Model the fold of this input.
Amino acid sequence: RHLRPPEVSAPTTVAELEDRLSEPTPGVIETMRTLRGDVMFLGVAGKMGPTLARMAKRASDLAGIQRRVIGVSRFSDPGQAAALHAHGIETIRCDLLDESSVAQLPEAENIVYCAAMKFGATGNESLTWAMNTYLPALVAQRYRDSRIVAFSTGCVYPFVPVDGGGATEDTPPIPPPGDYANSCAGRERMFEYFSALHGTPGRLFRLNYAIDMRYGVLHDIGRKVRDGETIDLAMGHANVIWQGDANEVALRCLAHATTPTTPINVTGPETFAVSDVAAEFGKLLGRTPKFSGTPAATGWINNAARMVKEFGPPRVPLRKLIEWNADWLSRGMSTINKPTHYEVRDGQY
Done:
């Protein structure tokens, strides 16, 4: 059933933003009501992990279900663990690359695997491969009796024509050059192999650009328009999805796990031209965008039809996301200050 929630209102503060990102939908509440067992988030301290764990906790509480919601990370910033605790989420400090530490983690029937390495991959290739392929193999064996939703990326696909509807889950994952994309394909292969070997149910969550007001492709484009910086059009098209919608799909995938695991593209149904979006930001911010380069005929474009069929369309459309980001940027609100490098075509991150 596509249980759609009320319309999402625009976040105007960081507290409101994190509340909107973690607000459980009727579909998530129903998933948490029927799901058996605890939920553990591995690599919870990343960009999406905190609001994802909060959504699981809020949905469980609203469903009247008592379960452990656990976040696992190195927690290099102690404030991250404290913030999760404040919302009723247990935390465990763990170096996930240490096999003995992973072996000591508690049992959990539901695993959401969020750990990954992208930025800094170039020049640190061995750690990139360890994080993106060795660690998934450790987790897939340690939690062979759980269900595992494993975050992946649209970067496992080859570049496809921007006007062709996007890569579907049946498109062979033969990524363009670069250790990041190839190691992400390796991550998927590890989960696929051990899922088939042990009968572990799961989903491979191929996410293409989650949007948070403080981070994301739209934030990058809008900030450059605001600040008068030149926008490279080499990667001239993209898909994006509101992070709150991506969080919803990730949690509902726990109830849509398959044996063996299978991929699902998670992104917005709209493919947009970067130049068009920059022009919209220009109108909203009172600036004239500056461009360089020529849009390529191919790019990392994902087809979201399967996601829409299973879970319904995203709640927040592209136009609203642009408006929200323009408002956020115009008021000089906080930023994570980590460019997505969406325009990179050679795989060097």
